[in-house]
Design a protein that fits this description.
The protein is α+β, with helices and mostly antiparallel strands. The chain has 19 helices and 28 strands.
C-alpha cells in the first residue's frame, strides 16, 4: 500500500524542529538581570497565555523559551539564586530531558496538586518580593500565590511580563482569518445561544458577562479562527450585557465580511486594543468573570471602572460541553471519516514497519497524508505523539529531528493523534506490536485494554462524576501493582479544543457527566526506558434504560472506529464479557468502515478483526 502525498512537507500541520528554544543559562541570566533592574527577587512564569489556555500562540510560549520545557502544563519560578519547574507526573521524563537541571530543579507533583506554592514557600526568603504578570493569573490563583508568599514572609508585586522584556525575537501575535461556523454544524443560532446565556446571567444576578475563554467565544458566536495551532480559535474577548448589543474584541483584524454581516444585528466586532474602553464602560455593572480563565488584570480593570467583578463559572462552559443533535451527528460522521484514514495508516504501517523502514516522523507524515486524502481535514487536533520503544514511555512525547528513531522489530509503537474536521474533532491512540511482543507486553496491554473496556461498558446513575468511575480503568492494573500518572479521560469539543472542560474522567473530575458530553477513554501503562502503552477512543455520554431499574442511568457510545492490535491481546486475561465486547466492536468497525476502504485496506481490516478465539 502506498501512502497519499496530498501535502508537501511545507504544507504539513506539524513540524519536527525542536520547539524548546533552549540555549543554555543566558536566558535565565537575562531574566535575573531584569529582576535586579526592577528591584524584584523573583518572577513566576506559568505555562499559559492571558486566557489561561493549554494551547497558546507562539508569542506566549514563554516557559518553553526560558527553560526548554515544551509541555502543555507547568510553572517555573526564577529566584536570584535558585529556580524550579513544577510539573505533574505526565511530564516527569519530558521535563528531565528538556530542562537543564543544573539551572532549574524539576519538581514533580501529583496531577491534582500541581502548584508551585510549596516550592515558593520553602525557597523564598523573608522580605523578598516575587513578581507576577496579572494577565497570566486568575484571582484564585493569585490568592494561592499570595498565601504562600505571605507565609514565607515576602510580598507579591504585579509587573509587566519580564520574559517579554528580555525575549529578543519574540514572535508577533498571529492574525489569521475569522470565519463563520455554519448554523447547520453548530446546531443552534447565535441568537438562541445568547438568549440562553442571558437567562443564566439573570439567574445568577449578573448584569453582564466578560467572555475571556476563546473557546467559549467561538462557541457563543458561531465563529472559528486560526490564531492558535491545531485549535480553530480567534483570540479575543467579548462583553455580553443582559440587554443590548454584545461587543467582541478580537486580536485578528482579518474578519470575514460574511461573519461581520451575520453578527451585525446582535454584536459589534472591535479590535483587541479597544478592550480597555469596553471594560471602562462597566461602571455600576455586576459583571460575571470566569474563575477559570478571567485574569486578575480583567478583575482590576472592571473594579477600577466602578463595576463589580463577580468571579464564578462562565455559563457558556457547561452549555458548550453538552453537544446538541447536530454536533453529535457531526462527531459520528467525523469519526467514520477519521477511522477509515486510521485503518489505511495501520495497514500501511503493518507492512512498512516490519522491514525496519519507518521512523517516528515518517509515521506522523503518513498518518497526516492519509487523513488529508480522506477529505475535509482542517488541521491535526494536537501534535501527534509518535513514540517507538522507550519514546513511547514519555506520555506527551513530541518527536523532533533530533529525537527521531526508527520503529524497530521487537518494540511497541504508540501513536496518539487527532484531527480537526468542520463537523468534529477526533483523538485516538493505538499501540501496536512490531514483530513478536514479549509476554510482559501482552500482559500490560491486556490490562490496559480491560480498563478501557470497563469505561466503555460502564453504566452509572445520573449525577455521577468522572472521579467516581476513574478507578474502573485502573483496577486491572492495580491488581498487578501498576498504575498510570494521568487522567483516564478529558472532554473534547465540536471542531474546537481536543481538551475541553469541565468534564473529565480523572481523580480531579468533579463535574457530573451529562448526556451529550464527549470524553476520551485512554488508560495506559508506561515502562520507563522501554515502552509505553495507551489505548484511546472517544465516547459519548448517553441515557440508558435498564430493565427493572429504579434510577435514570447513563452509559457511553464509543465513537472512535479502529481495531486494537490482536497480537498484543492475551485472551486468557479477559472474561467472556470482555471478549464479546471486543468482538462486537471489531465487527462494528468492519461493517462501518468497509464501504470507504480500498481493496487492500479492506483486506487488512478483515485480517485484523476476526473473533478473538478464531
Amino acid at each position: 500500500m502506498t501512502k497519499s502525498s496530498s501535502f508537501s512537507p511545507r504544507q504539513r500541520f506539524q513540524t519536527f524542529e525542536d520547539p524548546s528554544h533552549r540555549k543554555g543559562p543566558e536566558r535565565i541570566e537575562a531574566l535575573r538581570a531584569a529582576l535586579r533592574e526592577t528591584g524584584l527577587d523573583g518572577f513566576v512564569v506559568p505555562r499559559g497565555d492571558e486566557h489561561q489556555s493549554e494551547y497558546v500562540p507562539a508569542d506566549a510560549e514563554r516557559l518553553a523559551w526560558l527553560t526548554g520545557f515544551t509541555g502543555s502544563a507547568g510553572t517555573t519560578v526564577i529566584l536570584m539564586e535558585s529556580a524550579a519547574l513544577v510539573v505533574d507526573g505526565r511530564y516527569t521524563l519530558q521535563a528531565l530531558e528538556q530542562v537543564d537541571t543544573g539551572l532549574v530543579t524539576v519538581v514533580v507533583m501529583p496531577l491534582a496538586e500541581t502548584t508551585a506554592e510549596g516550592w515558593i514557600g520553602a525557597n523564598l526568603k523573608r522580605d523578598q518580593v516575587l513578581g507576577y504578570d496579572p494577565w497570566l493569573h486568575t484571582p484564585d490563583g493569585l490568592a494561592r500565590l499570595e498565601r504562600a508568599v505571605t507565609k514565607a514572609g515576602g510580598t507579591v508585586q504585579a509587573v509587566p511580563n519580564l520574559v517579554d522584556a528580555v525575549w529578543a525575537g519574540q514572535p508577533k501575535p498571529t492574525a489569521g482569518p475569522v470565519v463563520v461556523h455554519p448554523d447547520a454544524l453548530a446546531g443552534e443560532t447565535v441568537v438562541e445561544k445568547l438568549a440562553r446565556m442571558r437567562a443564566a446571567l439573570a439567574e445568577g444576578g449578573c448584569d453582564a458577562l466578560v467572555i475571556s475563554d476563546p473557546h467559549n467565544l467561538a462557541w457563543a458566536f458561531n465563529l472559528r479562527g486560526s490564531d492558535v495551532e491545531h485549535t480553530p480559535l480567534a483570540l479575543g474577548y467579548a462583553i455580553l450585557p443582559r440587554e443590548g448589543r454584545a461587543r467582541l474584541f478580537l486580536v485578528s483584524p482579518n474578519v470575514d465580511p460574511t461573519l461581520r454581516a451575520a453578527l451585525a444585528p446582535i454584536a459589534g466586532i472591535l479590535p483587541r486594543s479597544d478592550l480597555d474602553d469596553g471594560l471602562a464602560s462597566l461602571a455600576g455593572v455586576r459583571v460575571r468573570l470566569d474563575a477559570a480563565t478571567g485574569a486578575v488584570a480583567l478583575k482590576e480593570k472592571i473594579e477600577a471602572a466602578g463595576g463589580t467583578a463577580d468571579v464564578g463559572k462562565d455559563p457558556i462552559t457547561a452549555m458548550k460541553a453538552v453537544k446538541n443533535a447536530a454536533e453529535v451527528a457531526g462527531a459520528r460522521a467525523a469519526h467514520i471519516r477519521d477511522g477509515a484514514s486510521v485503518v489505511r495508516f495501520l495497514a500501511w504501517l503493518d507492512g512498512a514497519a516490519a522491514s525496519g523502514g519507518v521512523t517516528e516522523i515518517a509515521a506522523v507524515e503518513a498518518l497526516e497524508d492519509f487523513r488529508a486524502a480522506g477529505g475535509d481535514l482542517r488541521d491535526v487536533s494536537f501534535p501527534t505523539i509518535s513514540g517507538s520503544g522507550p519514546n513511547g514511555a514519555i506520555v506527551h512525547y513530541r518527536v523532533t529531528r533530533a529525537s527521531n528513531r526508527t520503529v524497530r522489530p521487537g518494540e511497541l509503537f504508540l501513536i496518539d493523534s487527532g484531527a480537526q474536521y468542520p463537523d468534529g474533532t477526533t483523538d485516538i491512540t493505538r499501540t501496536v506490536a512490531v514483530g513478536e511482543p514479549t509476554a510482559e507486553m501482552r500482559d500490560r496491554f491486556t490490562r490496559v485494554l480491560k480498563g478501557h473496556i470497563a469505561i466503555a461498558r460502564a453504566v452509572f446513575p445520573t449525577g455521577t462524576t468522572g472521579a467516581q468511575i476513574d478507578a474502573f480503568a485502573r483496577a486491572p492494573l492495580w491488581q498487578a501493582g501498576l498504575d498510570f500518572d494521568h487522567g483516564t479521560g478529558h472532554g473534547v469539543g465540536a471542531f474546537l479544543s481536543v481538551h475541553e472542560g469541565p468534564q473529565r474522567i480523572a481523580k480531579t473530575g468533579t463535574v457530573p457527566l451529562e448526556p451529550g458530553m464527549i470524553l476520551s477513554n485512554e488508560p495506559g501503562y508506561y515502562a520507563s526506558g522501554a515502552y509505553g502503552i495507551r489505548i484511546e477512543n472517544l465516547v459519548l455520554a448517553e441515557c440508558r434504560t435498564m430493565s427493572g431499574g429504579e434510577r435514570p442511568m447513563l452509559g457511553f457510545e464509543t465513537l472512535t472506529l479502529a481495531p486494537y492490535d490482536r497480537r498484543l491481546i492475551e485472551p486468557a486475561l479477559l472474561d467472556p464479557g470482555e471478549r464479546a465486547w471486543i468482538d462486537a466492536y471489531h465487527a462494528r468497525v468492519r461493517e462501518t468502515l468497509a464501504p470507504g476502504l480500498d481493496a487492500e485496506a479492506h483486506a487488512w481490516l478483515e485480517r485484523a478483526t476476526p473473533p478473538l478465539l478464531d
